[in-house]
C-alpha cells in the first residue's frame, strides 16, 4: 500500500526546449514541483524527520518545530501528518500569502514574525529554536545545519540525476536556500564523475556569489525571489567548492520564466528561474553539446501575486508577462 510520503522523490527530468535551443546544449530540469507537497523541500522534510526518528530525537507524541520561508514547512506538515506528528512553523510575514495558505491547508500551526537579520535574536530561525527548546518532546528540524539534509540529497536526488542521464552530465547548477540540495547533489555527482562542473546560481541580495568569487560574504542588491540567497555558510555548505558562480538579477530570469509558460506550458517559481538562468550561463561557457542539469524547485502558482502580477512587477521596473502586457481590456473584447 502506497502512502503519501512514498511519492516523495524519483521525479522526472524535463528537457527545457527554449533554453536548450538558445545555448546548443541539453538543459534538463529535475521536476521537483511534482513532489506531493509541491517542492524539492519535501525531500528535506522527509530526511530530517526520518533521521530524527532513527536517532530517537523525535518520539511518538512529539512535535516538529521549524523556522522556514515556506516550502520546507509545507513538506514537514505533509510528512508530519503522514507519520502522526503535529508541526509548528515559524516564518517571516513577508513570504507570499500562498505559502502561508498552503501551510495552513496542510495542517501546520503557523507563527508569523517580523523579518530580522540572522544576527538578531528575533530572526525566525532563532525564534523557532527557542520555541522547540521550550516545548516538551519537540524536535527542532534545523534544516540549515542538520547534516541529514545534505546526506539525503546525496543519496537520492544526486543518484537519480546520475541514473536518469545515464552518467552523461557535464554540469549541475543550483541556487542555495539551505544549500542541502546543491551540496548533496554535488557530492553524489563528483563521486561518480570528478570532472563534472558544479555551479552556484545566486539571486541578487544573496552573499554566496561574493563568497565563491572573492572569499567574502557580501550581499549586493535585492531580489523578489523567496527562500534562496542565503547570507551565511550554513552547515550544508560547509566545505563545498564550486567551479562557477553566477549572480542572477530578477530582470534576467523573469523573461525565461515567462517564455517557459508561453512556449512550454511550464509555470515555475523564482528559484527555478534563477537556476535555469544559471544553467544557460554555464551552458554557454562550456560550449555546445553539453548536458546541464538543474532543479525546478516549485511551481509558479505559489508566487502568482508577485512573479506573474503586472502591477507588482511594474512597480519595481521589472519585465511583465507578455500575455498580460498585450492583453486587451475586457470592454474591447466583448
UniProtKB/TrEMBL annotation:
<dbReference type="InterPro" id="IPR036052">
    <property type="entry name" value="TrpB-like_PALP_sf"/>
</dbReference>
<keyword id="KW-0663">Pyridoxal phosphate</keyword>
<keyword id="KW-0809">Transit peptide</keyword>
<protein>
    <submittedName>
        <fullName>Cysteine synthase A</fullName>
    </submittedName>
</protein>
<feature type="domain" description="Tryptophan synthase beta chain-like PALP">
    <location>
        <begin position="6"/>
        <end position="298"/>
    </location>
</feature>
<keyword id="KW-0028">Amino-acid biosynthesis</keyword>
<dbReference type="GO" id="GO:0006535">
    <property type="term" value="P:cysteine biosynthetic process from serine"/>
</dbReference>
<comment type="pathway">
    <text>Amino-acid biosynthesis.</text>
</comment>
<dbReference type="InterPro" id="IPR050214">
    <property type="entry name" value="Cys_Synth/Cystath_Beta-Synth"/>
</dbReference>
<dbReference type="Pfam" id="PF00291">
    <property type="entry name" value="PALP"/>
</dbReference>
<keyword id="KW-0808">Transferase</keyword>
<dbReference type="InterPro" id="IPR001926">
    <property type="entry name" value="TrpB-like_PALP"/>
</dbReference>
<dbReference type="GO" id="GO:0016765">
    <property type="term" value="F:transferase activity, transferring alkyl or aryl (other than methyl) groups"/>
</dbReference>
<dbReference type="InterPro" id="IPR001216">
    <property type="entry name" value="P-phosphate_BS"/>
</dbReference>
